[in-house]
Write a structure and sequence with these properties.
The protein has about 375 residues and is an alpha/beta fold. The protein has 14 helices and 15 strands. The protein has an 8-stranded mixed sheet with strand order 3-4-2-1-5-9-10-8, with helices on both faces. Strands 12-11-13-14-15 form a 5-stranded mixed sheet. The protein has a two-stranded antiparallel sheet with strand order 6-7.
């Protein structure tokens, strides 16, 4: 028995994101697996002919560049090596995709994104507009993190979460993560007793505990990154699928009953709340009591009276995480105050705020319109 993947059909999913990991695209010698890529391009072309718009999130630049530059450890020995390898390998990666897609009568476009491009609201909207226009023109965007300028502090670090954020920006209905395993297992897949989890309706602590580390020597993902991507995607109303790419024509195989894990999506929130909920660069944290947790769950804003502690260095409008008394994040939102003023007013009643701050206060720490529940 396999998961029901009818949600990937064109009528239900007119816009699809497909992510491909380095271990699928690049062999052990650091060469592009062109023959395999040609079969994937044929699968993409079949979907495009069926009316589906497809964008690709493709790893592989660092692995390809490392071979050309003769760098140790696959180009990941140092940040500087990774940046140099990415800058070199991205040329080969783009050429490989352009050639494979052109053979199917498709035009490829390249987009290189940084974490800030999708965390800053204005830049996010610009990226979304570009993606939308390319897809509407019948082009296949090929997207990768811009590792040549990304730093350790400001980067996605894996293309699984990038794919989920790109799906939000593109207005996609589903994401397929092609991997070196065919889904999420209840234990290490090498264990003969391992069982494939075919459908995940909620990412519980038990589901998250099943995630392990990266198995390939050329990638940076692993199941933990895929679970993190699933949180972002499903919270935004986007279905996510993990499936094996260790075969020719992996999308065709998936559509005809290939094994996979499907993460079912929640109801899609408004676009702005989806962007907030998927944010990865929170500047601070506000802890709240049980009463405030219940209030947020009922759709109310976060008032100072329900806050118990604050940490971080954030300004008004920055993304912060709201944490309950059990240490679990319950929401993300845009702060109405900076960290210093937040610290002054936590636990205080609304009618006290003016005297404490010396000016007419805003009514809440985080307004419900600028908050996404987790």
């Amino acid at each position: 028995m396999v998961a029901d993947l009818s949600g990937l059909d064109t009528k239900i999913c007119p816009r699809l994101i497909v992510k491909i990991g380095s271990s699928l695209l690049v062999d052990d010698t650091g060469a592009l697996r062109s023959d395999w890529l040609a079969t994937l391009a044929a699968d993409i072309a079949a979907r495009v002919r069926d009316g589906q718009q497809v964008a690709i999130v493709s790893s592989g630049a660092i692995a390809l560049g490392a071979r050309r530059l003769g760098l140790a450890k696959g180009g990941r020995a140092t940040l500087e090596d990774a940046q140099a390898a990415a800058a070199t390998g991205q040329v080969a990666l783009a050429q490989g995709w352009a050639t494979a897609l052109a053979a199917q009568g498709l035009t490829a476009a390249q987009m290189l994104l940084t974490l800030d491009d999708l965390e800053d609201r204005r830049r996010y909207l610009n990226a979304a507009a570009t993606l939308g226009r390319l897809l509407a023109l019948g082009v296949v965007p090929v997207i990768n993190e811009n590792d040549s300028v990304a730093t350790e502090e400001i980067r996605f670090g894996d293309n699984d979460r990038l794919a989920a954020r790109v799906a939000q920006a593109a207005g996609a209905q589903a994401v397929i993560l092609l991997s070196d395993v065919d889904g999420l297992y209840d234990r290490h897949p090498a264990d003969p007793a391992a069982v494939l989890i075919e459908r995940v309706a909620a990412i519980t602590p038990a589901i998250a505990a099943m995630a392990g580390g990266a198995e390939s020597g050329v990638g940076t993902g692993g199941m933990a990154a895929k679970i993190a991507a699933a949180r972002i995607a499903t919270a935004a109303g986007i279905t996510m699928v993990i499936a094996s790419g260790r075969c020719d024509h992996p999308l065709a195989r998936l559509s005809t009953g290939g094994r996979a894990t499907i993460f079912t999506a929640d109801a899609a929130p408004p676009a702005r709340k989806a962007w907030i909920g998927g944010g990865l660069t929170a500047r601070g944290e506000v802890r709240i009591d049980a009463g405030a947790v219940a209030a947020l769950a009922s759709g109310k804003s976060l008032l100072p009276a329900g806050a118990t502690a604050v940490s971080g260095a954030f300004s008004r409008g920055d993304l912060i995480v709201i944490v309950g008394p059990d240490d679990r994040p319950v929401a993300r939102g845009l702060s109405e105050y900076d960290a210093a003023d937040t610290a002054r007013i936590i636990g205080r009643r609304s009618d006290e705020l003016g005297d404490i701050l010396g000016h007419a206060p805003r009514t809440c720490l985080v307004h419900r319109n600028h908050m996404a529940m987790l």
